[in-house]
Design goal:
By secondary structure, the protein is α+β, with helices and mostly antiparallel strands. The protein is built from twelve helices and 14 strands. The chain folds into four domains: about 60 residues, 3-Layer(aba) Sandwich (MutS, DNA mismatch repair protein, domain I); about 90 residues, Reverse transcriptase/Diguanylate cyclase domain (Alpha-Beta Plaits), CATH 3.30.70.270; about 50 residues, 5' to 3' exonuclease, C-terminal subdomain (DNA polymerase, domain 1, Orthogonal Bundle); about 110 residues, DNA polymerase, Y-family, little finger domain (Dna Ligase, domain 1, 2-Layer Sandwich). It has a five-stranded mixed sheet. Helix 3 runs antiparallel to helix 4, helix 9 packs across helix 10 and helix 11 packs across helix 12. The relative contact order is 0.09.
């Protein structure tokens, strides 16, 4: 018997608008519309949950959104801020599984079938991912869990915002039968209207039609609709990411301040990052230390070595050099991280000239 897959679909809640409300406290608890001026020909990229009762939704003209809710706060998109948050979120995904398929900045599929995290429970992993996202970005995500991508995506839309919903293999067929046809991912308004004209209002109605009938009516999509009506979706979660770096970090329940404690934690993080690099059959030449102080000011310090980093690397000396011109030991620290980069397959040969030792440290605030 084939073991059912464990698929999680994570969808950030009103992502762009939520980032704006996080970064600008005056926007909180107010209707926020991301999309530019209401007096332009622009469209709504997304809107906060406070704006949705007014009938505002994505892709609506901003001029119409203004008529529906003139008191709303209209802001231009800040894609750099959204990408920064998205990168943090994706890094969290990869800590739980290597099988991650991003769909956009704010949603992704995770295949956790083989993951041993959280006792191998997809539900516990989803809860942990949501909690980590909230802790590290102050944003909420909704997660759907099921045995395929189709049902996981539907599940993530239930109980939004900050939702969590599980559809088990035993529940799948009955769940789809009761699902309104317009709730099927991939069925837009035009196709939904065409189906409704044929008397197809729910998954149960769709299930009554033969494969031949569906192919005659909907062409190549007929087979997809036939399978979806039965809760079948064999599409794999495809990870197209090429590893450019491997990083681990930790956020402390209570700030730390002593240099000794910082070095101890960085040594532990280095060991974890190096183990991940070795598991991937890679070598690394660059070490980056990330420090976030209690007031959220963040700095990084990097050094590229002329030789590959391994268990014999004098990381204590390297850390001492990296921390030399920082305020470690003077300011409270809430987060530490280690990233290993300049990666390549373990059997590749590198010329030393590719890796000139660098003392040029970056200070990102």
């Amino acid at each position: 018997m084939t073991t059912a897959r464990k698929i999680i679909h994570v969808d950030m809640d009103a992502f762009f608008a939520a980032v704006e409300q996080r970064d600008f406290p005056e926007y909180r608890n107010n209707p926020v519309i991301v999309g530019g001026s209401p007096f332009s020909r622009g469209v709504v990229a997304t809107c906060s949950y406070e704006a949705r009762p007014y009938g505002i939704h994505s892709a609506m003209l901003t001029s119409r959104a203004y008529r529906l809710c003139p008191q709303a706060i209209f802001v231009k998109p800040r894609f750099d801020a959204y990408r920064e948050a998205s990168q943090i979120i994706r890094r969290i995904f990869y800590e739980y599984t290597d099988l991650v398929e991003p769909l956009s900045l704010d949603e992704a599929y995770l295949d956790v079938t083989a993951s041993e995290r959280n006792d191998g429970s997809a539900t516990l992993i989803a809860k942990a991912v949501k909690a980590r996202i909230k802790q590290e970005t102050q944003l909420t995500a909704s997660a759907g869990i099921s045995y395929n991508k189709f049902l996981a995506k539907i599940a993530s839309d239930i109980n939004k915002p900050d939702g969590l919903y599980l559809i088990t293999p035993e529940q799948g067929a009955e769940f789809v039968e009761q699902l309104p046809i317009q709730k099927f991912p991939g069925i837009g308004n035009v196709t939904a209207q065409k189906m409704q004209a044929l008397g197809i209002a729910t998954g149960k109605d769709l299930k009554q039609l033969s494969l031949e009938t569906l192919q005659n009516r909907f062409g190549k999509s007929g087979l997809k609709y036939y399978n979806r009506a039965r809760g079948i979706d064999d599409r794999p979660v495809i990870n197209t990411r090429q590893s450019k770096s491997v990083g681990v970090e930790t956020t402390f329940q209570e700030d730390i301040v002593s240099t000794q404690a910082v070095c101890q934690h960085l040594q532990q993080l280095f060991d974890k990052a190096l183990a991940k690099v070795n598991e991937k059959q890679l070598t690394a030449h660059t070490v980056t230390v990330k420090i976030k102080y209690h007031d959220f000011v963040q700095i990084t310090r990097s050094r590229t070595l002329p030789h590959k980093i391994n268990a014999t690397t004098r990381i204590d000396e390297l850390l001492a050099a990296l921390l030399k011109n920082t305020e470690v030991g003077q300011r409270n620290i809430r987060l530490l991280g280690i990233t290993l980069s300049s990666l390549s397959l373990i059997n590749e040969q590198f010329a030393l000239s590719q890796f000139e030792q660098s003392d040029l440290f970056e200070n990102i605030e």
